[in-house]
Amino acid sequence: MAEWVKVGSAGEVPDGEVLAYTAGDRQIAIANVEGDLHAFDDLCTHQQCSLAEGELDGTTIECACHGSMFDVTTGEAIQGPAVDPVGVYQVAEEDGELRVRVEEE
Amino acid sequence: MTTFVVVGAGEAGGTAAATLREEGFDGDLILIGAEPMPPYERPPLSKEYLRGESEHVYVRPPSFYEDHEIDARFGTRAERVNVTDSVVELEGGERIAFDQVVVATGSRNRRPRIEGLEMPGVYDLRFAPDADAIKEAAKNGSKAVMVGMGFIGAEVTASLRHLGLEATVIEATSKPMERVLGPALGGAIEALHRDHGVEMIFNDGAERFEGDGRFEAMVTREGRRIEGDFAVVGVGVEPVTDVAGDGLPVDNGILVDGSLRTSAPNVWAIGDVARHDHPVFGPIRVEHFDNAMKMGEQVAKNMLGAEEAFDDAHWFWSDQYDANIQMAGFATEWDDMVVRGSIDDLSFSAFLLKDGQLLSTFSMNRKFDVRRSMPLIQARLHPDRDLLADPEFDLRQLRPPKEEPAA
Asked: What single DSSP character describes residue B270?
């Protein structure tokens, strides 16, 4: 069952930036693309580098370790070496909180 | 029906064939590879795969080729690309007529003249079965003798140390990768390996391998005798240009222009085998994964009419122990090196400049600088030294504005 989990405060991810959060035992990255938030697994499916440390260009995040690129809106791996997609999550700002919707472990 | 043939099914050839389909090519498409496996990634062979942490990573899922009506001939060697007749001649005599062909035959390991090189227990690494053999030897052994401290030698050494083996390395120059990196940056690689207990001997080379039917020791030119359970030789590669025959110009690789086309209008070359005319660096042959992938994508688009120049700044990574190493650009010589961070602490980026122009960036454990410097290299910028040296300065601020396509 999925539930909304508070990970931070509303408005704290600046436009064009990506920050890493912890939700339960998951590490989740949240990107702000021109005001729209996108949440996805922070760990690259190639070698588990933090994608939040990578470079956001539009809706593409590029891993800083080995250059894999993912679409932050779908999680799709759009350039290798990563092959597998990252998971994506619903994200919302409500009541001053930054929340993501994750499956309960 | 139009027929496109891709000769060579490594990273570059596999990507080219897949991209042709992904870009909508609906003619006959034949992919010929000497290896029996579908195209797979080689970087893990010296790292995660060798350490037993990963299985093979395929360029596309193995079912991709059949699913996309690509006539994949794995385990088939092409003997010649006959430019005059536009025919690929296969081992065994079959001839395949093409409208366009891509040569992506890669590179092969140099086989230096060392007595005993063919002896059991002496390995080199290029293909998946080579990695399997070294993995097996590592399981049964406790001490490895490494010949050559290039990137492959350094990565294999790091992986073997990770698996708990002792390693002694012999290297002909005075620092690891000295010809590419110079003494200061080569020294950082040396320090990294020394910190991890690797014994390194420089300015010496292997003269012969000894053993009673199987490797037992290496004797060096300087007369050292280094015992071990097995040896791994990694002394560089050479392009596999055999298929070029006399129809294609070859000079340290098959020569291609900025769009990856050879002197024959319907013949292209990509990956390790291609020496392409780079707008910043001039003719250059690149032996890295990222280049193979990007050339594979670009050649497919160009075969379908895009006619775009390939101007990638060239980038690669090398993971050794817990260090992330990256490099971009290309510099055979430089007259200035600006360092940000600390070489002594093995956390730095080094910018190599000639006449003020940034040609190449190398980093160890600083993940951003190299990739951020690539647009600067492509634009032939002469960046301010103080900005380069400032660890807090974001190189993206130096990027030239993107050119808007003409309306």
From this structure: -
Predicted complex ipTM: 0.71
A67 and B293 within 8 Å at the Cβ level: the answer is no
Q: What is the pTM of this model?
A: 0.90
Q: CATH number of the domain at B122-235, please?
A: 3.50.50.60
B257 CB-near residues (< 8 Å, 6+ apart): B276, B277
Question: Are A13 and A31 a contacting pair, CB within 8 Å?
Answer: yes
pLDDT in tens, A10-51: 889 888 889 999 888 889 999 999 999 999 999 999 888 889
Instruction: Give the count of beta carbons closer than 10 Å to the beta carbon of residue B307.
Output: 10
Report the distance separating Cα B404 and Cα B381, nearest Å.
Answer: 19
Cross-chain Cβ contact B43/A81 below 8 Å: yes
Nearest-neighbour CA in chain A from B53: distance (Å): 11
A81 preceded by cis ω (within 30°)?
A: yes
Distance from CA of A18 to the nearest CA of B (A): 14
What is the homologous superfamily of the domain A2-103 according to CATH?
Rieske [2Fe-2S] iron-sulphur domain (2.102.10.10)
> Where do we find the tokens 């083996």?
B165
Q: Which amino acid is at B88?
A: V
Chain B residues in contact with A47 by the CB 8 A cut-off are 48, 319
Of A53, A80, A83, the CB nearest to B367: A53
**CATH number listed for the domain at residues B322-398:** 3.30.390.30
Q: Is B4 left (phi over 0), alpha (psi -120 to 50) or beta?
A: beta
